[in-house]
Amino acid sequence: MTDEARVMSRVALPEETQVERQLRPQRLDEYVGQRAAVESLRVSVEAARRRGEPLDHVLLSGPPGLGKTTLATIMANEMQANIITTAGPSLERGADLMGILTNLAEKDVLFIDEIHRLPRVVEELLYPAMEDFSVNFVMDKGLNARTIRIPLRPFTMVGATTRPGMLSSPLRERFGIFHHLDFYSGEDLTAIINRSASILGAPIAPGGAEAIARRARGTPRIANRLLRRVRDYAQVKADGTVTPEVAVRALDQEGVDEIGLDRLDRRFLTAIIENYKGGPVGLDAIAATINDEAETLAEVVEPFLLKIGYVVRSPTGRRATAAAYAGLVLLVAGHFSGKVPWLGRLPGDIHIQRGSWTFYFPLATCLIVSVVLTLLFSLFRR
Ligand SMILES: Nc1ncnc2c1ncn2[C@@H]1O[C@H](COP(=O)(O)OP(=O)(O)OP(=O)(O)O)[C@@H](O)[C@H]1O
Ligand SMILES: [Mg+2]
After folding, report:
1. Predicted structure pTM score
2. Which residue among 4, 149, 201, 376 is least packed, with the fewest CB closer than 10 Å?
3. Could you name the CATH architecture of 186-254?
4. Nearest to 55 by CA among 77, 25, 35, 85
5. Which residues sit with their C-beta closer than 6 Å to ligand 1?
6. Hey, where are the domains in the chain?
């Protein structure tokens, strides 16, 4: 993986496990954003606690790094229960799940990550476990085969998935609570960065967190990672404080662009624009063009581009919007402005700050650049 791919990677990097755990909120009150989900879970937890019952089974879906594992841990903490963590692909045989289920204590939380990747046989074992808190175990084979019903202690199952559409409907229907996590607003990411900076003991100046939030692709995991990179840069190349200027310099150096798009996002957009004249084009065609899997694009690339309005979905396929064209032009301009500092910053160039977004209308720059280009073209024509 190149360094740029690493810095914007949506999945946790191997060395990040420790620091992710350190930065993970432990209670609902510390969990920033996703207000609808948090409020609804707060009510469910309180109601279950008053009844003295385990919480209903919860299914959490959403793109990587938005806080599914974090919420699962919080559920267990709020219920004062233990959490037992496993993942769909690691439960290969029914016996693997059987062992875990029969060892659960009352009200324990069983967290199954990537639940859409559970093998069929294991999934079928889960149905009675979730519904009646029992499992049917088949003894012997052939004529002597018989099933024994093994009762389980009432537990809470929390499933997490990046692909809710891939869950079979019998499994989906057995969850009582369903929440989809969406990308975070600039304000929420700013709050997350400030919180993480105080845990890490990194001094942060006003505006520093906003500058990082703007490039974090709506994702807390990326926000925390960028914060750590900027903190290192501030310690080595500045006085240790994360100021907006230091953040911009550090992230420019890391190759993170001003909108927080990563290489795959940019390839996806340029494929639609360059190869298919802006669309509409089917996902499979884009996947073939950029040599990636349509599934990955649907799961981890498209949601964010839809969210920021760079792509729209229509019955005939995906289309790049005017915002995407403008965004890519800005990225190219931004790239050059690092080398030609006056580009985009001339008197007459307009900057509008809206929340965490900055809109640039480099009017004077465009005028000068187009005059220069026209002169050059006419010179070459002669
Ligand atoms: N709402 C939040 N408030 C504060 N920090 C958060 C929040 N959501 C996530 N984080 C931070 O982001 C990191 C990644 O979150 P988490 O591991 O829960 O993501 P995930 O959705 O489980 O991702 P994956 O799909 O890759 O498993 C956590 O370590 C945590 O520090
Ligand atoms: Mg997770």
Report:
1. 0.83
2. 201
3. Orthogonal Bundle (1.10)
4. 77
5. 11-12, 20, 23-25, 31-34, 64-70, 113, 160, 162, 192, 220-221, 224
6. 34-180, 186-254, 263-324, 340-381
Note whether 34-180 and 186-254 share their fold: no
DSSP state of 277: T
Smallest Cα–Cα separation from 331: which of 308, 371, 360, 368?
360
pLDDT, tens only, 236-279: 999 999 999 999 999 988 878 888 888 888 899 999 998 999 98
Query: Is 270 labeled as catalytic in the residue annotation?
Result: no
Structure tokens at 272: 């639609």
pLDDT of residue 83: 96
Specify the pLDDT at position 339.
Answer: 58
Beta strand extents in the chain (DSSP E only): 58-61, 83-87, 109-113, 134-139, 146-151, 156-161, 177-180, 311-314, 317-320, 350-354, 357-361
Active-site residue 113, yes or no?
yes
- Give the distance (Å) from ligand 1 centre to CA of residue 161: 13
Active site residue 289: no
Can you name the CATH fold of 34-180?
Rossmann fold (3.40.50)
Q: Nearest ligand to the C-alpha of residue 11?
A: 1
- Residue from 113, 257, 262, 265 carrying the catalytic annotation: 113
Considering the candidates 68, 107, 249, 318, report the single residue annotated as catalytic. 68
Residues of the chain with pLDDT below 50 are none
Helix (H) or strand (E) holding 271: none
Residue 342: the pLDDT is 66
Per-residue pLDDT of 333-352, as tens digits, reads 666 655 566 666 677 777 77
d(CA 69, ligand 2 centre) in Å: 4
CATH code given to domain 263-324 = 1.10.10.10
Ligand nearest to the CA of 12: 1
